[in-house]
Specification:
mainly alpha; transmembrane; membrane
Amino acid sequence: MTFIVILLVLVLALFVGAFLSRRRFGVLGLGLSAGAIISPIWGDNASFVVSALGLVAEGPLVNAIALSAIILIPAVLFMFHGYTYKHLLGRVVGSLLFTLLAAAFLAGPIAAALTLTGPVGIVYQWIVMNRELIVSVGVALAIADFLVSRTVHKSEKKKH
């Protein structure tokens, strides 16, 4: 039960973080993609660091926490820099897409450590079964969102 609460808090925190930061889905989605690419490369070292800190008892949960952290860190860093949404609808849709893509990327590490049941388990199983589709469409949408993002230029004339 504790793990379910932690997962729900994590998902809610990802949504709220993306919404409050107003960052575009493209930037955050590509950050998740970068984290997912480097997580298998750095996973063993990160697991060693997590277990050495003694925060979690040895076992599959250590690896799940380490891989999840590696996946999320680039996106969390991008929450502080990048293109932003100007309208509420864009912020809500972008935050929902970011949260769904994050859940799909985190499904692998979490599946290795936890077995979820009940209503949360049903949603989780749907994400696991459709993981490839969610990641493929999510990354394609992130790239498209990134490509249509424009920087705002200030039209100030410098006087010499």
